[in-house]
Specification:
- The chain is of the alpha+beta class.
- Helix content is about 55%, strand content about 15%.
- The protein is elongated and about 45 Å long.
Length: about 100
């Protein structure tokens, strides 16, 4: 994982999109679940754990994916999701750079 020096950290439009994606309780819960699991999690398992209807879950996962916070992989008829730790780490560094 590439670490940016504090002097080079600057907010970018993709950071804004990531923070916007996390500014919803369900998406934040999904992201926390994926970070805690630290593995690829099938969509059905996420759905069962969080008790979110399938179409709603798909919508939220798509927003998180487009924001660069999660990645997905399809295997036959199953889709697996995992947190992108590089993006999450960059957001944390950005938030704490001035503290």
């Amino acid at each position: 994982m590439k670490t940016l020096p504090l002097a080079r950290l600057q907010a970018r439009p993709d950071h804004v999109e990531a923070f916007k994606a996390l500014a919803h309780l369900t998406r934040l819960q999904i992201f926390f679940l994926l970070v805690r699991e630290a593995r690829e999690v099938p969509a059905g398992e996420i759905q069962g754990e969080l008790e979110v209807p399938g179409p709603t879950l798909s919508h939220h996962l798509d927003i998180l994916r487009r924001a660069g916070l999660v990645q997905s992989r399809r295997e036959e008829r199953f889709v697996y999701y995992s947190a992108r730790s590089d993006t999450a780490s960059e957001l944390v560094r950005l938030l704490t750079a001035c503290c």
